[in-house]
Write a structure and sequence with these properties.
This protein has 22 helices and 23 strands. It is α+β, with helices and mostly antiparallel strands. It has 4 domains: 3-215 and 235-244, Histidine kinase-like ATPase, C-terminal domain (Heat Shock Protein 90, 2-Layer Sandwich); 251-384, Ribosomal Protein S5, domain 2, CATH 3.30.230; 425-520, Rossmann fold, CATH 3.40.50.11260; 525-658, Four Helix Bundle (Hemerythrin (Met), subunit A) (Up-down Bundle), CATH 1.20.120. The strands form 4 sheets. A 9-stranded mixed beta sheet has the order 1-6-5-4-7-3-2-8-9, covered by helices on one side. It has a 6-stranded mixed beta sheet with strand order 16-15-18-17-20-19. Strand 10 (280-286) and strand 11 form a beta hairpin. The radius of gyration is 33 Å and the shape is elongated. Bound molecules: adenosine-5'-diphosphate (ADP). Adenosine-5'-diphosphate (ADP) binds at residues 37-38, 41, 79, 81-84, 92-93, 123, 125-127, 173.
């Protein structure tokens, strides 16, 4: 291959522009990213060599070397890992292959601050080199290829890059950063060691730097040196010897007591690409029928692609410290896909594949154990969410600083991930109870999402037999729904649910702690013992008296409704729509249709308020047919739907207005 100039994929060019312009405040992360790539490359070699030992080319000791050249103003990160073939250099360093990443780039707003936040979640990887370099040279050879098939890749980080074939005896990759003027301070061993210490200490491979020694300056010509200070300034010089500058043991293999909170946090940031610290973590060695170490983190912020259920899980799998795979989805249920961390198994075979993982008993045990661990982390956060209010004269500082630090964390977690957690009701039967306890809602008594089912139960009215809830598109729609009128009148709390998953999720939770959950938009209203006997009787009587009207309405609306009946649930509104007990709510059916899926075409029940003037007027009205349709369409509007034929609705209303 002769020298070729190729263009970056459009998304890469965009990303590069952003990297160089918005990551200024966090420059030093480039070293973490490049060391992390080098370490991944060594992991990959080790993994491929499991089946093909000659890839080691008789040099099995893997390491990462960081070196610099003050005169040339270059900083080099070199590894003897898997390396890149020529084609891989073109593909991997010129395009974005990862799924989801293009979406990510399209989400960038051009607002540097906001974008810098986003980019943090995504991880800029290799391209972060351009934060400090105005040119990057990569020299590489893939393990197993002959020396004549090395590759050199060079780019100034603008629109294009050059690739050419080179001779390269050394396996693996060297990334040579030609530092910008304002990044010259990275040509300093002390500074580099500091950064490696902070960000890369947990890397299990040795990171090596060349040892330096202080050398006194030589005497200036014509002096003996010891008299009038006539020497050149002394300086650090390289000794040619390499020393390991990190701990070189995987963080999770060290005893907990030797790891600081800051080290955990930096480790989390390195594996998650998150700029922010995690909310909490758990680090445990689990022994028993299957042995493994788990280090699991709960992030404080949702990634941009949280809603993609296909999205990779955040767990890295190691077997006896050998990296096996990223995104091991078999190790965590889908509803906990936000959890990041590492699982290191002592029992799985090294050559385990994704398919095998799905079937392994050990994996099932690990998943169950990790799921329980995550739930107990969340329970712990939930317990500490609200600091107890001190009563008069009480000593307040009984709480530890650690407890205080946890206050408000669960609310933060829930705002980001609550809707995902709810999926667990349908997905994880065994832990349904625990998940239900972790749920929080807004209610007719609280706009803030913070009411737990237990809170609700504790506030239930004397004689109340169900936990009532309503699902709607928005909080306003839920709060003002006609279905809530009688509950408001009687002061009965109703949970307001506005997440898309609510209806589906709640359909899996028949009861909580012995109390049934009941949607107020389904079935006939049943307030049980809360129902006023006289009210009930009055309703029955008016139902009897209104029989002819009901029949007439049913006939007029026969294409639209299943039934028409009198209700006690309405106070101010003339009518509302409900679905049958186990039917799909109208809101859910709309949602499915919007998503292009088929929803069953079940018709709702129209319930009317016998006391309402409009209903009273209906009876003898000359334009009964039009009025009936208006009543129906308005009930539909009130619960967030749209009339089938909006123009006809407008026409009818206008006719009345005129
Ligand atoms: P990521 O590492 O998140 O996939 P990067 O932009 O950091 O994204 O790197 C892109 C790809 O380039 C990597 O997936 C890998 O295939 C390749 N790569 C980067 N650095 C190295 C390296 N030191 N050795 C071998 N391949 C590398």
């Amino acid at each position: 291959m002769t020298r070729q100039t190729l263009s970056f994929q459009a998304e890469v060019a965009q990303l590069l522009h952003l990297v160089t312009h918005s990551l200024y405040s966090n420059k030093e992360i480039f070293l973490r990213e490049l060391i992390s790539n080098a370490s991944d490359a060594c992991d990959k070699l080790r993994f491929e060599a499991l089946n093909q030992n000659d890839l080691y080319e008789k040099a099995p000791n893997l390491d990462v070397r960081v070196s610099f050249d003050k005169d040339a103003k270059t900083l080099t990160i070199a590894d003897n890992g898997i390396g890149l073939s020529q084609q891989e250099a073109i593909d991997n360093l010129g395009t974005i292959a990862k799924s989801g990443t293009k979406d990510f780039v399209s989400k960038l707003s051009g607002d540097q601050k906001a974008d810098a936040q986003l980019i943090g979640q995504f991880g800029v990887g290799f391209y972060s080199g351009f934060i400090v370099a105005d040119k990057i040279t990569v020299e590489s050879r893939r393990a197993g290829l002959p020396a004549s098939e090395g590759v050199r890749w060079v780019s100034g980080g603008a629109g294009d890059f050059e690739v050419e074939t080179i001779e390269r005896a050394q396996r693996g990759t060297a990334v040579i950063l030609h530092l910008r003027e304002d990044a010259a301070d990275y040509l300093n061993a002390w500074k580099l060691k500091g950064i490696i210490n902070k960000y890369s200490d947990h890397i299990s491979l040795p990171i090596l730097m060349e040892k330096e020694e202080w050398k006194d300056g030589a005497p200036l010509p014509g002096t003996s040196g010891d008299e009038n200070g006539g020497t050149e300034p002394g300086s650090m010089v390289k000794t040619g010897e390499w020393e390991t500058v990190n701990q070189a043991s995987a963080l999770w293999t060290r005893p907990k007591k030797d790891i600081t909170g800051e080290q955990y946090t930096e480790f989390y940031k390195a594996i998650s690409h998150d700029f922010e610290a995690p909310l909490t973590w758990a680090h445990n060695r689990v022994e028993g029928s299957t042995e493994y170490t788990q280090l699991l983190f709960i992030p404080g912020k949702a990634p941009f692609d949280l809603w993609n259920r296909e999205k990779a899980a955040g767990i890295k799998l190691y077997v006896k410290r050998v990296f096996i795979m990223d995104e091991a989805e078999a190790l965590m249920p889908t509803y906990l896909r936000f959890v990041k961390g590492v699982i290191d198994s002592a029992d799985l075979p090294l050559n385990v594949s994704r398919e095998l993982l799905q079937e392994s008993r050990d994996v099932k045990a690990i998943r169950d154990g990790s799921t329980k661990r995550v739930l107990s982390m969340l329970e712990d956060l939930a317990r500490h969410d609200k600091l107890p209010q001190a009563k008069e004269g009480e000593v307040t500082d009984v709480l530890s600083d650690e407890d205080k630090a946890k206050a408000g964390q669960y609310s933060k977690f829930y705002a980001e991930f609550g809707a995902v957690l709810k999926e667990g009701l349908g997905e994880d039967f065994a832990n349904r109870e625990r998940i239900a306890k972790l749920l929080r809602f807004a209610s007719s008594q609280s706009d803030v999402v913070g009411v737990s089912l237990a809170d609700y139960k504790a506030r239930m009215k004397e004689g109340q037999e169900a936990i009532y809830y309503i699902t709607a598109d928005t909080l306003a729609a839920a709060k003002n729904s006609p279905q809530l009128e009688v509950f408001k009148k009687k002061g009965i709390e109703v949970l307001l649910m506005t997440d898309r998953v609510d209806e589906w999720a709640l359909s899996h939770l028949q009861d909580f702690d012995g109390t049934p959950l009941q949607s107020v938009a389904k079935g006939a209203v049943d307030l049980g013992k809360l129902q006023d006997e006289t009210e009930k009787k009055a309703a029955e009587e008016s139902a009897e008296a209104l029989k002819p009207l009901l029949a007439k309405l049913k006939e007029a609306l026969k294409d639209k409704v299943e039934d028409v009946r009198v209700t006690t649930r309405l106070v101010d509104s003339p009518a509302c729509l409900v679905v049958k007990d186990y039917g799909m709510s109208m809101q859910m059916a709309r949602m499915l249709k919007q998503a292009g899926q088929t929803a069953p075409d079940t018709k709702p029940v129209l319930e009317i308020n016998a006391e309402h003037p409009l209903i009273k007027k209906l009876e003898g009205s000359v334009n009964f047919h039009d009025l009936a349709h208006i009543v129906f369409d308005q009930a539909l509007l009130a619960e967030g739907g749209l009339p089938n034929d909006p123009a006809a609705y407008v026409k009818r209303v206008n006719a009345l207005l005129v």
